[in-house]
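STRUCTURE REQUEST FORM
Protein name: Rhodopsin domain-containing protein
Source organism: Sporormia fimetaria CBS 119925
Requested output: structure tokens
Priority: standard
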Amino acid sequence: MLICWIVFVPCSVIVSIFSLSGGTRHLIYIAQSPTQLQYILKLNWIAQPLAIFCLGASKIAVAFLIIRLLHRTSVWRRWSLYLASGLTGINTVLMIIFTFVQCENPAALWDEDVKATTKCWDPSVQSSFSTYGASLHAAMDFYLALLPVSLVWGLQTDLRKRVALCALLGCGSL
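Status: completed
Returned output:
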């Protein structure tokens, strides 16, 4: 989580600069100034891999926390968390790599002059992989929220407390 936080700080700074520079305005207004548009697009593309890293790293950190807290639980829970963490890590790294290798010159992502002279992938490839990556991250969120429920349900306490604990632990999926 510390590594995630260290990466999150510059990501937050870049997103703040992006917002203060008008990056949250509608594209029609931003496009009126080509230099402003290029600057905002550059900030957006720089912030994306940092945000992707924070999403993946935080999920892995939570999975390792569950493993550490519940080290005496069943083997299938531990190994399923290791497997889910591995898949999340691979997915996160691929999403970051694909962000920058989609064009031979990454500057083509924000500079129209460079884009005219550089070969890039079909944008639908990056869009499809991003959808896949986001869905895998969402599945990991649900898994991390539901796994502790299987432990809580086995506790010897009244039904009301078990339901309350399950609802509380399941909030991570939101």
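Reviewer notes: The chain has one domain: 2-145. Residues 64 and 81 are 8 Å apart (CA to CA).
Form closed.
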